[in-house]
Write a structure and sequence with these properties.
globular, single chain, seven-stranded parallel β-sheet, 192 residues, 21 strands, mainly beta
Length: 192
């Protein structure tokens, strides 16, 4: 299955794309105004712009490529769980621009390459989150201007949770409330 698009997609919440198949390509798209808005503090509702599979399909699909896309005007300084991209299968994400939102990438599977992405003006917990994904590569990404929604919340460039054999190389993270947060068991190589 291939999704090769050049265009502008706009919506007020929910999910644009679910790549529940092998060998998807999402390329040269602009995703504007994605994610839930006006959720009350403590809300557990979630949304995502692109989901590479679902939680119960981890490892089922391979070969998704997300590259040269622009993600604009996500739910900045909003409550709930709103991620630009949620990953439950192997993926390559490269050369994307993420401007404005709550959470950016939530990687919950291994064998992923996250390379040369620019991410800024985010307010959530998971900007680049490696959550139980092994054998991943995070390389040459730029993350800046990450600020929590309120004084009780946390926001950081990287969140690492159970990241066995994951490499972080040549990433630039600055002007963030925290550079990184390491929560679980890891085998990590880093020169971020």
């Amino acid at each position: 299955t291939e999704i090769i698009s050049i265009g502008r997609l706009k919506a007020g919440g929910g999910q644009f794309v679910n790549t529940a198949a092998d060998n998807n390509i999402i390329e040269q798209c602009t995703f504007d105004n994605w994610g839930l808005r006006s959720e009350p503090k403590g809300s557990t509702k979630s949304s995502t712009c692109i989901s590479v599979g679902e939680e119960n399909e981890k490892g089922k699909f391979t070969g998704t490529i997300i590259r040269n896309n622009t993600f604009l005007n996500g739910p900045y300084k909003e409550y709930g769980y709103n991620a630009a991209v949620k990953v439950f299968n192997s993926v390559t994400m490269e050369n994307n621009l993420f401007f404005g939102g709550q959470e950016c990438m939530e990687v919950k599977y291994g064998n992923c390459t996250i390379r040369s992405n620019i991410i800024h003006h985010f307010s959530g917990y998971n900007i680049l989150a490696n959550r139980s994904g092994c054998n991943n590569l995070y390389e040459s990404n730029v993350v800046y201007d990450v600020r929590p929604i309120d004084k009780q919340s946390s926001a950081q460039g990287f969140m690492i949770w159970d990241a066995g054999n994951t490499v972080y190389r040549n990433n630039l993270i600055y002007d963030c409330a925290q550079t990184g947060l390491i929560l679980g068991k890891q085998t990590v190589t880093s020169n971020t």
